[in-house]
Amino acid sequence: MKNEKMKVQYRVNEQIHAREVRIVGDDTETQVMPTAKALQLAERKGLDLVEISPNAVPPVCRLIDYSKFLYQQKKRQKEMKAKQVKIEVKEVRFGPQTDDHDYNFKLKHAKEFLSEGNKVKAYVFFKGRSILFKEQGEVLLLRFANDLEEYGKVEQMPVLEGKRMILFIAPKKTATVAKKKTETATDEETAAQVEKTVKAQPKVKAPKEYTGPKLEGED
């Protein structure tokens, strides 16, 4: 289906209705000629006449291998799609009185989410009368944002929406975080290697002072 959609984007060979066209292409002189003559030229070269700019006057056509052209177009689209970064929003839920163990567990996951380039939507859910602890929930979310400072930046400060207080954190450039870690590791490895090399060097003893009789020529 995708290939069919791509094919209808271009008129090829006998589908080109203009009386004359402008020919462009590799190893082809740019010139205007009757469409019938252009088709004969394409046939002699074993190529296709493809209309790439139908609104030009006259329309612009290329002499190319159309099957190869479609393959390259499809490949280029796949590459562009692969380069597009898909950002997901990962949710992290807290209670107004979350203990340290649960907090650290969720903090660890939030770091992973941000490192992978995803956003984090952290919220405190207030059930029943626990809404009385909304200030406590805000403090928890601000602490959460502070602990994630290396991995993300606050996009939206804590806001109370109904029974939930919500905080949004966007990822920092993962390359920057990774680079810092790599540079730190490299520095530590270098220092360790230098220390190891120094320790491996044989100790040189200082020469003993000569205490024998003086040699000839000495004062």
Secondary structure layout plus pairing:
Elements: H1 2-7, E1 11-12, E2 20-24, E3 31-34, H2 35-45, E4 48-53, E5 60-64, H3 66-83, E6 89-94, H4 100-115, E7 119-125, H5 134-147, E8 152-161, E9 164-171, H6 174-200
Parallel strand pairs: 2-5, 6-7
Antiparallel strand pairs: 1-4, 2-3, 4-5, 7-9, 8-9
How would you portray this structure in words?
The protein has helices spanning 2-7, 35-45, 66-83, 100-115, 134-147, 174-200; strands spanning 11-12, 20-24, 31-34, 48-53, 60-64, 89-94, 119-125, 152-161, 164-171. It is of the alpha+beta class and 219 residues long. It has 2 domains: 2-79, Ubiquitin-like (UB roll), CATH 3.10.20.80; 89-171, 2-Layer Sandwich (Translation Initiation Factor IF3), CATH 3.30.110. The strands form 2 sheets. A 5-stranded mixed sheet has the order 1-4-5-2-3. A 4-stranded mixed sheet has the order 6-7-9-8, covered by helices on one side. Residues 1-7 and 175-180 have low confidence and may be disordered.
Give a short summary of the structure.
42% of the residues lie in helices and 24% in strands.
Main sheet makeup = 5 strands, mixed
**CATH H-level homologous superfamily name of the largest domain:** Translation initiation factor 3 (IF-3), C-terminal domain
CATH class of the largest domain reads Alpha Beta
> What is the molecular shape?
rod-shaped
N-end to C-end Cα span: 104 Å
Trace the largest sheet across and list its strands: 1-4-5-2-3
Helix content estimate: 40-55%
Tell me the β content: 15-25%
Which architecture name of the largest domain does CATH use?
2-Layer Sandwich
Structural class: alpha+beta
- What is the number of helices? 6
The overall pLDDT average reads 79
The count of β-strands is 9
- The third-level CATH topology of the largest domain is Translation Initiation Factor IF3
Structurally, the number of domains stands at: 2
Stretches with pLDDT under 50, minimum 5 residues:
1-7, 175-180
Query: From the alpha-carbon coordinates, what is the Rg to the nearest angstrom?
Result: 36 Å
